[in-house]
Amino acid sequence: MGNRLRSACYAQSRSLKFNVIRPRRLALPQPAPPKSCPCGNVHLSPRYHPLPSRTSGPPFCLTALELQSVNWQATSNRQAHHTDRFSSRELILRRGQSFSFSFSLNRGLGDGESLGFIVSTGPYPSESARTKAVFPVSNGTSRGGWSAQLVSKQDNILTISMASPVNAPVGVYTLSAQISSRGKDFILKLGTFILLFNPWLPEDGVFMNNHAEREEYVQEDAGIIYVGSTNRIGMVGWNFGQFEEGILNICLSILDHSLNFRRDPATDVARRSDPKYVGRVLSAMVNGNDENGVLSGNWSGNYTGGLDPRNWNGSVEILKEWKKSGFRPVRYGQCWVFAGTLNTVLRCFGIPSRVVTNFNSAHDTDRNLSVDVYYDPYGNPIEKGSDSVWNFHVWNEGWFVRTDLGPSYNGWQVLDATPQERSQGVFQCGPASVAAVREGDVNLDFDMPFVFAEVNADRITWIYDASNNTQKQNASDTHSIGRYISTKAVGSNSRVDITEKYKYPEGSSQERQVFQKALGKLKPHAAFGATSVGKEVNMALLLKNLTSDMKTVTVNMTAWTIVYNGTLVHEVWKDSITISLDPKEGNLSCDEVSQLVSGDRVVLVLGFLMLNPGPPPSSSRCYFCYPSHLPPPPHSESLFRFDPPTQKGCNVQAVMPENLGGTETHGRWEGSEEKQWKAGALGGFACRCAHIGKILQAVMKS
């Protein structure tokens, strides 16, 4: 058979060479440059490849390899990979699991020709980033990388079994065959497929061992979301519809429209191997506050130009409308709409997920694990402060390992797409380990203090009297926050209370111990306001001595330029200060700093200035100024008065406590009308001040 094929090709080759060359000599005085086929020989037509030489003499050619057809064996593969419920016609696979396909060529592989494959994903595939792999046909599989085995070879039809690594990024892949001959490669594009997470595979980070739970949290396409209040828990039916036509491709588009992808697509695609990364990106993208995400939130009661959130009953219409509109946020959503939509996307990608409702949910904005609620003397609620308590709030839980935290924090992770507070500059929340919430480990990633407070915060009630601008604490409630945390039961429409997964029983010694543990782990909060190019950046360092002894501390500060992922570039500033604080004394409090802002007349504390050594306490005090029309801060003991300012500056006289008598302060200030200011003796050294945005210096001396 082989000799007859070679003879036939040889005869055909001679005949075609004769027929091609002679007309070209007659018709084309300057023929086109010869072309090289993949085997390395020069031919007038790329359709011909050389035969390996059998004897001495000129080489003989075979027809170039051409792809005739591909059989993805879609039915058997989709059943084996649990993707047969998707309405899409595409080949949808789960990572870490083998799949079979066959393809036919116009001829068989010749002697010296070898077969391999290339898979790639994303716009900039790279082997170093694991978004591209080049691998030969081998005799075995490897969970650490892509592999392929030749199952059968019948005439020109090759059947292949291929396996992806268990940590491959999810997304759309391109598969090509690579034919190698004599050092040259010839590429045949076979087609594309979609790769998802694999909760059926023990080695996958999203593996869920319980069959019934896996069916509920991955395969179930409809569910119940709980709403209402602690006194009357209601429910809303929701169509997740993760398998409906077009939904998978829309979910993939969500990732491709994220801020991370737009900034650095190569890195973003590579990180899609990690379910916690994908979950965090999705929590940002399901709301449209930052990145033209899926839904626009509205709690005003006026839903002109959109749909009342109460009228949605599923995610499919929302996702299709988002795509149809050119990927502009769909109007409008509230917490259960965000959660229902995020649940669809998580299950679509193969991350087990469920919708969770927390009744009496705290919204703690200042990380102190308490929410302050204000009433007037007549019992009317007052909108004062930014803390609040929601009758109910709905979020999601995704199931995956936390390789960044350790095995004790694996399992359910809170993901919240409702835009409440910014996290790393973006409206996103989670993943926060439910196990970590229960144990009060608020120092762990991501957004743990906020999630912990939602279910554990103390509720402080204040009576505020506007007539004399005073407030008095009325009550402290440690039990009402985080009640009846609910989700749909596995395999039924019953409600399951999972409060015990989030915290120990209210009022128990364990619950209070965890609360105090969490409070102790919270680090001083750094709040950064908006900055403008070319403007000075102001900073206030807040310290307090909690001991009974005087303490002297040295604070070293640096500023660096960084790229978006935190990589350091250049050091641009550094400073070091030493501060002495008396027992139980602080330099400034957050409330006092907030009182420094008053229209266009502002005095800002920017740092500290060392004084000449002297006996305490005369040389170891710090004063700050604030507008006199504001309520006095605690421990207000002094008065400053500014002389009328001139171009040379102005003098500031201070009325001091008796133990600081004789201290005078001189300051240079930008022009302003004469104004009286109060000052509080708050510890530390003298301070640098700014007036109307200018950095100037005030010097205190004895």
Automatic annotation (TrEMBL):
It comes from Ursus americanus. GO terms for cellular component: cytoplasm; extrinsic component of cytoplasmic side of plasma membrane; protein-containing complex. The keyword Protease does not apply. Its EC number is 2.3.2.13. One of its GO terms (biological process) is keratinocyte differentiation. One of its GO terms (molecular function) is calcium ion binding. Belongs to the transglutaminase superfamily. Transglutaminase family. Keywords: Acyltransferase, Calcium, Metal-binding, Transferase. This is protein-glutamine gamma-glutamyltransferase. It comes from the Eukaryota. Residues 327-419 form the Transglutaminase-like domain.
